[in-house]
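WARN no homologs supplied; continuing
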Amino acid sequence: MDTNTSQFFVTHAETPHLDPYVDGQLKPCQVQGTSCHAVFGKVTSGMDVVLAIQQGDVMESVEIHKN
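OK structure emitted
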């Protein structure tokens, strides 16, 4: 399913099943249902906000800062 949209996953623990690689090998990302996502950031402050996020919450804005 090609959604052509952006998705943000905010995880509370390591989620290797979302990575595009397994044991250094690229997964078949073209196969429907295969999770192939890139990690592009980390929480540097406000972890209390992350921990308060619940399933079904709606994000009203996102800020991405370059270090």
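Residues 11-39 form one domain.
OK
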